UniProtKB/TrEMBL annotation:
Source superkingdom: Bacteria
Keywords: Signal
Signal peptide as annotated in the record: 1-20
Keyword check for Signal: yes
UniProt name for this protein: DUF2796 domain-containing protein
Amino acid sequence: MRRLLLALPFAMLPLAVAHAADEHDHEHGSLGAHEHGVGRLNAVLDGKTLELELESPAMNLVGFEHVATSDADKAKVAAVRAQLEKPLALFNLPTAAGCVVENQELESPLFGDKPDADDDHDEDAKDEDGHEHHHDHSEIHAHYQFTCATPAALKSLDLANIFTRFPATQKIQVQLIGPSGQQGVEVTAKAAALKF
């Protein structure tokens, strides 16, 4: 199933190209750029298997992007991790679908994981005077795999709990592949549900 999520960006390429053309001035036309307030969700429903992959700047979820050193920051990171470890509550999947979590992975430098060398988690920039400024761009990645006894009951995916629990998240860019095809949708707190 992991290969389905890996194939998702290629399946969604026509949408990505169209979006990049519309947004060429924003973030230099790069999709998936680190933008505070914006999360990304890849969703694939294949037979009885549902995979969800959430990526978000840490700022949206914990309120900061630096490694937690104070007790208050460590407590905040632990609380967010605990919420992310309960995907059935987070994604509000219909009970009738009978979905159970088969696998979940959480990754972030804030959780003690080392960032990939290719990721843009750190940027060094120089101001007009030539002084270097170091900016942390920590992300949180959550990957969930569910087995659903009655996948036909998954008519929609409700993301309202994400907006409620993480109010700094203003919108989520969703790429979804389901029985009715593929779609790219931008979801907000006011319109937090999408149809499979």
